[in-house]
Design goal:
Helices cover 44% and strands 12% of the residues. By secondary structure, it is an alpha/beta fold. The strands form three sheets. It has a six-stranded mixed β-sheet.
């Protein structure tokens, strides 16, 4: 073969090699990227599949039966269990067990659980107890788990409902409500006393007007009373205390470092409460009656005015009508009575979820996600079952044209913080009801009872200083 032919063949070979190399490089690059993409997707899928399995306990004071509140065979906790199921479907690695807590005995169960380090991961409750748990160091601060966008969805002031004295937030706000008097209007109509109920826009009235209305519907001989007081435990004290605030009393001073309920105004309030029992206007036995029992008395039309009403409780009674649990009657509402010149007041009563510390980063992470999920926009709409007011703007107005809710919006300005941020708040509550028992059974006069209460509660405050 001639040198010329060999040279030509070498050139052709080199050119072919270059193109082959380019093609190989291009194909190799594409294959590499595709391989990386495939590997990334596989890794994500494997991560999802291999994500650590987590078991969470979710406790709460369920406020309605069933999922929507209208199921005849609904049980307390059905809605929360449906939330837990939906969350686990989105996150298969998370297993959730929900437990309904009764108002009677529930707080004690939580306290025992904290002491024995068997506390739930997530708890649905209110700030009254949450702040007590925060003071114990049992709750997880939530400030680092929210974006500014998430915070902006809360109505004004809602996020700070969970703010403790240390400046940190411990609650996922979910709902708020107005605590007020819930009235069986049908009983007043039957007694020809409907005109004795408040007729003004804010439905305010004096102590004398309140007592006159109770007299019109009370019939002790038939076991029917104008109202019922209760001191069987501290539950529902938002109603009994607000009834006694109307003379101008408060429990704490403004800085929450002193008990002032044993003031002359406080004594007048307790004297008024005792007079209702003495005059047969309130059911006897208040020293042992519990708030949960009073709700049943109200539904059974044994008392005409429930002193611890709310839009949520209104919804609960409405549901009892719908399911046929009790005979239907017409309901009404009003503010707590006050002395002349004193502004009405009621407890601010926000509801939300808190996360307990567990020492397990994975559990705490998923507990936070569960609490966020349970209080998201769609789940906030479930509050309509018991007429609670959602604190998420995105939930919208659930009650257009409903008189009770429109009235609630007008009087929310009278909401008063009863001292929820005091680290001694829970101990204060525990100290008050035994003294009220003593007043109701006649073993102590109001002044002595309040002085004894103040001494005990002040000692609780002082130990936190």
């Amino acid at each position: 073969m001639s040198k010329k032919i060999i040279s030509v063949l070498l050139v052709v070979f080199l050119i072919a090699s270059v193109f082959a190399g380019c093609a190989s490089n291009t194909t190799g690059k594409d294959t590499s990227e595709g391989s990386k993409s495939t590997t990334s997707e596989q890794t994500k899928e494997e991560t999802k599949q291999e994500e650590k399995q987590v078991s969470l306990s979710y406790w709460g004071y369920s406020r309605w039966k069933g999922i929507t509140g209208t199921e005849p065979d609904g049980e307390y906790g059905d809605w929360q269990r449906s939330v837990a199921k939906a969350f686990s479907e989105q996150h298969p690695n998370v297993k959730i067990e929900y437990e309904h807590l009764p108002w009677d005995g529930g707080p004690e169960k939580v306290s025992v659980a904290i002491a024995s380090k068997t506390q739930p991961d997530v708890l649905e409750d209110g700030t009254a107890r949450f702040f007590g748990y925060a003071a114990m160091g049992a709750l997880l601060p939530l400030d680092d788990y929210f974006t500014q966008e998430e915070l902006s969805d809360y109505v004004e002031g809602a996020w700070d409902l969970g703010k403790f004295t240390d400046g940190k937030h411990y609650m996922f706000p979910w709902a708020n409500m107005v605590i007020h008097l819930l009235i069986n209007k049908s009983m007043f109509k039957a007694a020809g006393a409907e005109h004795l109920l408040p007729q003004n826009e804010e439905r305010t009235w004096t102590y004398d007007e309140f007592k006159e209305a109770l007299k019109a519907v009370s019939n002790p001989a038939k076991g029917v009373y104008g109202t019922a007081l209760y001191a069987g435990n501290e539950q529902g004290d938002s109603g009994t205390n607000a009834l006694m605030w109307g003379f101008g009393a408060t429990i704490f001073n403004e800085t929450l470092d002193k008990i002032v309920f044993n003031s002359p105004e406080g004594v007048k309030g307790v004297e008024f409460a005792k007079s209702l029992i003495d005059e047969g206007l309130a059911m006897p036995g208040a020293e042992t009656i519990k708030a949960t029992e009073v709700l049943e008395y109200f539904k059974q039309q044994k008392v005409a005015i429930h002193i611890n009403g709310s839009s949520g409780l209104y919804g609960t009674v409405e549901n009892a009508f719908k399911t046929g649990e009790v005979e239907e009657f017409e309901m009404d509402w009003a503010m707590y009575p006050t002395a002349p010149g004193v502004k009405p007041a009621f407890y601010a009563n926000p509801v939300g979820l808190a996360v307990f510390k567990s020492g397990d980063a994975d559990r705490e992470k998923w507990a936070v996600e569960l609490a966020k999920f349970a209080t998201n926009t769609e789940n906030s709409k479930a509050l309509k079952a018991v007429k609670l007011i959602p604190v998420k703007k995105s939930a919208g107005n659930l009650y257009p044209g409903e008189p009770l809710m429109e009235w609630s919006a007008k009087v929310i300005k009278y909401a008063r913080d009863p001292g929820l941020a005091s680290p001694a708040y829970a101990e204060m509550r525990a100290a008050l009801y035994p003294e009220m028992q003593a007043v109701y059974n006649g073993t102590k006069d109001p002044k002595t009872a309040l002085d004894d209460f103040a001494a005990k509660a002040q000692a609780s405050i002082d130990k936190y200083k």
